[in-house]
Amino acid sequence: MNSSHLFQPNRALGYVSNHIPPNVRYIDQRRENVVITCVGRSFHVYGCNSFRLIRTGRIHPANITAIAADGFLTYVAAGNLIYGWRSSVELRKVYRGHEKPVRLLLPFAKHLISVDESSLLKIWIVSTQELYLEIPFAAHTFEISAIVHPASYKNKILLGSAQGGLQLWNLKSCKLVHKFTDFDSKVMQLEQAPALDVIAVGLHSGRIVLLNIQYDQPVMEVHQDWGPVTAISFRTDGTAIMASASSNGQVVFWDLEEKTIVSTLMAHDDSVTGLHFLPNEPLLVTSSPDNSLKMWIFDLSDGGARLLRFREGHAAPPTCIRYHGASGRNIVSAGEDSSLRIFSTVAETLNCSLGKASYNRKASKKQKKKSEDPFRMPPISYFTSEVTRDKEWDSIAALHQGLVQVTTWSYDKRRMGDLHLVPEAFQNKQHKKDFSVMATCLCLSHCGNFVVIGYSSGHVERFNIQSGIHRASYGAPTAHNDYIRGLSSDNLNQLVVSGAADGLLKFWSFKQPYTTVVKTPIETLDLGDPITLIRTHRESAILCVALDDFTLRLVDLDTRVIVRRFDGHRGTITDACFSPDSRWLITTAQDCVVKVWDIPSSYLIDHFRVSHMCTSLTMSPTGDFLATAHVDYRGINLWANKSLFTNVTLRGLKPESDAPLLDLPTALCDEQQDGIGFPLYNTKHMEVDELEDVFEEINLEYNSPPQLSSELITMSNVAASRWQNLLNLDIIKKRNRPRQALKKPKSAPFFLPTVAGLDFEFDLQATIGDKTTTAGGKIAEGGSRIIESNQVDHLTPFGRLLNAALTTEEYGKAIDHLMKLGPSMIDYEIRNLTPFNSGSGSLPVMGAFMHMIVYMLGQRKEFELAQSYLSLFLKLHGRTIVENEQLSKLLPAIEDAQKAEWSALEDKLLYGLGVVSNLRNFSG
Known about the structure:
single chain; mainly beta; Methylamine Dehydrogenase, Chain H; four-stranded antiparallel β-sheet; about 15% helix; about 35% strand
């Protein structure tokens, strides 16, 4: 099967928008405007009232190239096809016919206009999906670049070209109505102005012309100095303002009455591709390829705009991701845009940014154009975090590409820290652009007080992360003679482990008394090949070391020996992580394969391949998700752990076998695409192993039989609360008794009925009538209500079942009855088996109970119940059994059955302990 045994795509985080212009429409049912943005092969729908992600679209077979919407459908162009979606999830229409990718869409009454890359214009009937009209244009003379429907112009559309020309067409008659005067630049945007007959034309040269198309005369002309016009929009709330966007992220607001610039706004770090004023509101929505969507409100005293709401992700692919905290709800991510972000796996509204790395944060805040900030630091290549001191001081330390400085960040305050950690020997080089020495790896101590940093010169230094003071150096003069590739420390701050490109793994004492230099390591391991990276699972004291020969070694920190070796990757290992229980090691490499290794058995149990190399991965502390980051992808991909939700059969795989190719997660998983359909299995040409895998996936429900084998000891499925505290029931009752004694109620007067008359006489007929009582306790006609003692069975229901088993020797009904009772009733039933001390039982019934225990032990079922019932029976009736010769003869039979079953159970336990001990001590 083309799937992973353990992981399935779940969803992607951090995608907001790309270069495709968004669409804004009003939804009557929601009574709010919504924004539809493109995120690759899917689209997102955000509500403008709160900017919440209210809906996500289905996955398309190709990247989306255009989005449009009318009052009923959302039209999405992906490749050569156009899809019509209802409520973003119901596929209603598919329009086929284009041979080139579609790049422009325009809903036109009951029709849909589409233009592909060859400038072929098609008009579709929306309801029937039929082609109504087709108009080809020569791309070398009139390449369609913009399209708009002029208000009040029936059946007419205005087309703009890359050559600078404009043409007005009547679609009903399929005729060219008018050809306008050509402009000297490419037509980038066409937008209907609030005034009739006026169309805003945005050109590549930065010129904006308000053209009266009725007379072919320009009404107004302005020029923006920030590059091509990428978007145009008009305010409709009574203010004559036009907004134009540029390719450098600037938005300019023009006063159409005064013909002047009102204000400018640096809205994004990249080109502004989406610009929409909400109808009759002072709100502006902008989007950009920098993966952000923002809403601005015009409520400042000077008429300017301020940021009201926003959604954003990384503007460049993440370089390192790590789960933070024990809840598994937050992922800290560093991107190539020099930013550090927190993504929530629960709700997108909880996402936040810690800012961008800067040499001078105060100076960076004053920069108007963020993309050209001279104080911007290089991207973060690796970081590490600890939760122990989150509230007190900075809890994240980060490396930067090519820099000797290490920056600190505060997770709790959501900002960059003030420290730039640099050893004194390198401080004179910190302001140079070409460093001869740079920080290459680091680790935070478990206590959150210290950060240990390794450098390309072979130095290893330890700093206090609260004050930034240098505390210790490892090695004299250096720890290694080559690049430091990995660092780690244990839970108790006893050890520091360093690995370098010289292939040596050194164990150092964390601190040396009376000195700040730890000169010699405690022990050194020569691994033979240069070390690529080091990852640690501190709770189990296991160290994962990746080597340049694409192999992995597991080292026990306590014994300092190699306990496992894994081979199978065909490229340099880029990252590795452990599962929370340290049973699995998950690795990824430049061969685009993610592998899962079972540490106790040393087997490869799962692997899958992705289209783009995985640069970083991390496992949730709760074990439910695996998060990955990939080259050229700006989001974080979540993979669900199927072993937590379904029965997964794991078996060893050959490390050199080919891994199946999986699609990366998007907004929705492939299994949830009801509109596109579920995959069907073709079993005609499948091998036997493949068919078995299919049937395992289909038949996920398995009901275990009551007993797997008569050779095994089977425990009961009865709740432990019903039998575990039987011996301590007296103590529990004594502890739970009320502190105040119960008050005795007042005695009610007792009156005997009398016969009406002059003489005082009792009515005996009210007590003795014409009814008799049978032996079962029922009253028969013509008898007395007085019950005779020789006609009553004093046994309890459980005692009667045991009494019946004296002749039949079938104890199943008695066992089932006892299993249904609670602890108090079990104590009552067993206590009343004796005929002495106010009991209602008999000695034969007590013997039957002992035979029942022998029967339960012989069946090897309900093992713990038999032990608990026997313990309570001996506690209550031990003296009676010893004093009675008939009951004493049954004790050897119980003892023999007990020894036989315990020896069988002991053999199984010792065998299991031996296997586990052998696997633990095995080094391979």
